[in-house]
Specification:
The complex is a heterodimer of chains A (270) and B (412). Chain A has 270 residues and is of the alpha/beta class. Chain A contains twelve helices and eight strands. Classes of the chains: A alpha/beta (270), B alpha/beta (412).
Chain lengths: 270, 412
């Protein structure tokens, strides 16, 4: 991306710039933006639109998970939700159709998908259909940046972001390459391991995030994997531009609790 | 076959590059197939593994250590047996490359031992492995016991039940066997779970992958460690017969015994090479495990290859009487060898494999694994159109592990 992409407020703003702008200007000033993840169609395909609206009401950016049979980067919660969504017939095609048909929330939407469903859909068609459905970006956990050229080029045609991930074990040279290639924001994984396990945030992680932030500038940085509480968000405040909550929110939806209320507990003054 | 084959000139170029040893290329690809489609967390671990392979695998010291263990502990070279009564029954001259005689009863030990030695050299603290039929799990457990490395094996709950004797063997060999209850509860789910374990500790843990699949450099590493099968067979046959065979056969699931058998013969253009996949119950989606015969290109568990999947790119459950072939993908080098037109891939169904197994047992006094029995059927079929032809078959493992299945089927 270029600095000119960022939130200019004009009507022709690129989808990927909407993501950066929403993270830079969160609902609650001075707080990290909340990027909220939900598996599409879980716990109920019928209630997808309702759940999406409720999640979006409490979040700055919404990540919608496209279910896949083999979610190798995910822990038990998202494995369970993916399987249940697939059983209800949820697919990338279905998600895009739902998004096209519904009144979309103000918060920018990102699709999180393993690569194979995207490959099968076809990259060129994906770029067009995603943009038409109001999707601003993609996160693809099994697509490291050096394998991502083709998808990045295809999405570029419609201004849709391909968000790249970095981890605490990513070496410095590669970190710079990934940050330069990423769009929308840089997804900083806070730990090694799969999604969903709660982690405390040691000093070394804050140092790592500070470093990513320096390298990534002007792109914002969001921290994810294992974030479930206000205490963690508070600890990360000032060190990142946004936090990503996934498994914990999926569990809230699973229990039938109100996602908007729960997301507010992550904010200041809750 | 839904894949468009490239024109003959392009095919010839791919084959020439394969024979010249240009694959995997710098990006870990065999032509269009292969690559590294993994979470970013694993990239440094794969880089270290690649550097470790480069630094050690082909050094005289490492090869001497591996060679000595292969000779004194695994029992290599394995025999090449002329199968006289099968030959008389089928009408071709059939030789069996006896990987069933290797320690732990299958070719899997060649790779497990090699990777465990490499892991030790690279300072790994612990080993994780996946297993389907249990043969790779047993081989990994044995190799780790031999080298004093802690070993954890992930195995699908369904497979633990149908291959119960191997679960006990792994535990006796000191490995921790972890049941996988997610996904399809077979090999594919076990690989997913092993990958998750590895993602949690990519620095201290070594992932000992059992087939010629997964992200680069695994398909290459497994091929290098299994290629001894074909090298031995080729030299043994030449010494015995003074010529090359007309054909070589192997069964293909992920494809490790097959790539090991085929590799030495790929440059020998007079030798026909045939891989036999698991045809299961039929040709419909979900009825077999024949990814090359019925699959389309896609990405699963780290590599771009041919997969059994639906129109949405969701991976399909597979069906085969043989747990070791029950996998919806296949190694990227096989996808290349098919695209380049060098290897033919066909399938044998459950009934055909069971019949070939019984013939081999009765006529040769060898109980083959259900996996290898698919290749036996392929040879039987080939013999009809090649009377008197000379063929080597990789008998990848012994069938003792299949007794529960055989009790339920042919012995009922």
């Amino acid at each position: 991306m270029s600095a000119g992409d960022i939130g200019t407020g004009n009507a022709a703003v690129l989808p990927r710039a909407r993501i950066s702008a929403a993270i830079r200007n969160p609902q609650v000033a001075g707080e990290p933006a909340i990027v909220a993840f939900m598996t599409a169609g879980y716990p109920s395909a019928e209630l997808f639109r309702t759940h999406l609206a409720a999640v979006a009401a409490g979040a700055d950016v919404v990540e919608i998970g496209v279910p896949f049979t083999d979610p190798m980067a995910d822990g038990v919660t998202i494995q369970r939700s993916s399987q249940a969504a697939l059983q209800q017939g949820v697919s990338l095609r279905w998600i895009l159709a739902e998004l096209r048909a519904m009144q979309r929330p103000a918060a920018p939407l990102i699709l999180m998908s393993y690569l194979n469903p995207l490959l099968n859909y076809g990259y060129a068609r994906l770029a067009t259909d995603a943009a038409a459905a109001g999707v601003c970006g993609f996160i693809v956990p099994d697509l490291p940046f050096d394998e991502g050229e083709e998808l990045r080029a295809a999405l570029d045609a419609t201004g849709v972001a391909l968000v790249q991930m970095v981890t605490p074990v990513t070496l410095e040279v590669r970190l710079a390459q990934i940050c330069a290639a990423s769009q929308g924001f840089v997804y900083a994984v806070t730990m090694t391991g799969t999604t969903g396990k709660s982690v405390d945030v040691p000093e070394s992680v804050l140092d790592y995030l500070e470093n990513v932030r320096q390298v990534a500038a002007p792109l914002p940085v969001c921290a994810g994997f294992g974030i479930r509480s206000r205490a963690q968000v508070e600890r990360l405040r000032g060190h990142v531009d946004g936090v990503i909550v996934g498994s914990a929110l999926v569990e809230v939806l699973e229990r039938g609790d109100d996602p908007t209320t729960w997301l507010r507990t992550l904010r200041a003054g809750a | 076959m839904s894949m468009a084959l490239p024109d003959p000139a392009a095919r010839e170029r791919l084959l020439a590059d394969e024979i010249a040893g240009k694959f995997p290329d710098a990006r870990g690809r065999f032509g269009p197939y292969g690559g590294r489609y993994v979470p970013e967390t694993l990239i440094p671990a794969l880089d270290r593994l690649e550097a470790g392979i480069r630094a050690h695998l082909h050094t005289p010291q490492f090869q001497a250590r591996l060679g000595s263990e292969l000779a004194s502990w695994v029992g290599r070279p394995t025999a090449l047996s002329f199968a006289s009564r099968l030959s008389a029954a089928w009408g071709a001259q059939v030789w069996l490359k006896r990987e069933d005689l290797a320690h732990t009863g299958a070719h899997k030990i060649n790779n497990a031992l090699g990777q465990a030695l490499l892991a030790q050299q690279l300072g790994a603290q612990r080993i994780v492995a996946e297993t389907g039929a249990g043969q790779h799990g047993v081989a990994s457990a044995a190799a780790c016991a031999r080298l004093g490395l802690p070993c954890t094996v992930y195995m699908g709950a369904v497979d633990m039940e149908r291959q119960a004797p191997n679960v006990g063997r792994m535990r006796l060999l000191g490995a921790e066997v972890v049941p996988v209850t997610g996904g399809d509860q077979t090999l594919r789910a076990a690989i997913d779970e092993a990958l998750r374990d590895w993602v949690a500790d990519p620095s201290g843990t070594f992932y000992l992958l059992g087939s010629a699949v997964g992200p680069h450099p695994y398909p290459y590493l497994v091929r290098e460690l299994q290629a001894i099968i074909g090298r031995e067979a080729r030299a043994q046959f030449l010494q015995d017969q003074g010529v090359l065979p007309d054909a070589v056969f192997a069964c293909v699931g992920g494809g490790s015994n097959a790539i090991g058998m085929f590799h030495a013969f790929v440059p020998d253009r007079s030798v026909q090479i045939v891989g036999v996949e698991a045809g299961g119950r039929g040709s419909g989606l979900g009825e077999n495990a024949a990814s090359l015969s019925y699959g389309r290109p896609g990405v699963l568990q780290g590599c771009y290859s041919l997969l059994l999947q639906d129109d949405d790119g969701q991976i399909q459950e597979t069906d085969s009487i043989s747990a070791g072939l029950d996998y919806p993908g296949v190694g990227p080098e096989h996808a290349l060898l098919m695209t380049a037109g060098r290897v033919q891939y066909e399938s044998a169904n459950d009934a055909e494999a069971l019949e070939a197994l019984q013939e081999c047992a009765r006529l040769e006094g060898i109980l083959p694994a259900l996996e290898s029995s698919h290749a036996l059927h392929g040879v039987k079929r080939w013999a009809r159109s090649h009377p008197g032809g000379r063929v080597i078959l990789c008998l990848s493992g012994r069938g003792d592990k299949d007794m529960p299945t055989l009790q339920r089927t042919v012995l009922k």
